[in-house]
Every structure is written in C-alpha cells, then in structure tokens.
Amino acid sequence: MALRPADYLVHMGFVEGAAMWCIGFEKQDQGVTILGDLVLKDKIIVYDLARQRIGWTDYDCSSSVNVSITSGKGEFINAGQLSVNGASGCAMFSLQHTRASALLLLLVLMIGSPFLT
C-alpha cells in the first residue's frame, strides 16, 4: 500500500504561519501498526473468502461498485448512496461498520486469533 502524507497526517491548521500536522495512526507496543479509517478513506476493500485473503485499492467512492454474489451474478450499487431501510443517515454508519469489520478481519488474518485454534 502506498501511503501519501495526506493519508496518515491530519492538517490541524496553522501556528505562527507554519502548518501544523498530527499523526493519524500510531505504532503499538506489540509492534503492530493499526491502520484506521483515515488510511482507508478513498479505498475499496475486497474480500476473497474462498482463498482467505483481503485487499484494497484506491477508489472513487462516488462511483458504482460491482458486487458479486455466490450465484455468479453481479449487481451494481453506488457506494456513496448506500442506505439501510431507506434511511440515508444510516449509510455512513453502515460504511464505517464495514471498514471496522475489514480492519478486524485483516488483523485476525495477520496476527491470528486464539479463538480460531
């Protein structure tokens, strides 16, 4: 994954004319870096459950997404206009929940889980 400074730094304004930036993620004591929502913005997450892989790529989230289902058919949705039960206010929660689930799955695949052994 190629990270640009804007992907992990947050511009907090200016102090005495100088730009002030803050780190968007930090390294944990266990040697694991947690990449959160800030790094995954403008990315599309791809799950390959059959091969137990997860991946991501740069993506314009206002574009349509081809969603494949087990029947082999696909359907197109606009990721920027997702809603739950017609309530557009729930769309952001749904997307954030998906990103959190993707991050958790990635960590389990990378580190392993004592519950899976």
Keywords summarizing the entry:
117 residues; alpha+beta; two-stranded antiparallel ribbon; two-stranded antiparallel sheet; 6 strands; flat; Aspartic proteinase Asp1; PEPTIDASE_A1; Peptidase_aspartic_dom_sf
What's the arrangement of secondary structure elements?
Elements: H1 5-8, E1 9-15, E2 18-23, H2 37-40, E3 43-48, E4 53-58, E5 64-68, E6 74-78, H3 89-111
What does this structure look like?
The chain is an alpha+beta fold and 117 residues long. The protein has a domain at 42-116. 26% of the residues lie in helices and 30% in strands. The chain has helices spanning 5-8, 37-40, 89-111, and strands at 9-15, 18-23, 43-48, 53-58, 64-68, 74-78. The strands form three sheets. It has a two-stranded antiparallel ribbon. A two-stranded antiparallel ribbon has the order 3-4. A hairpin with a 2-residue loop joins strand 1 (9-15) and strand 2. It starts with a helix and ends in a 6-residue tail after the last helix. Residues 81-94 have low confidence and may be disordered.
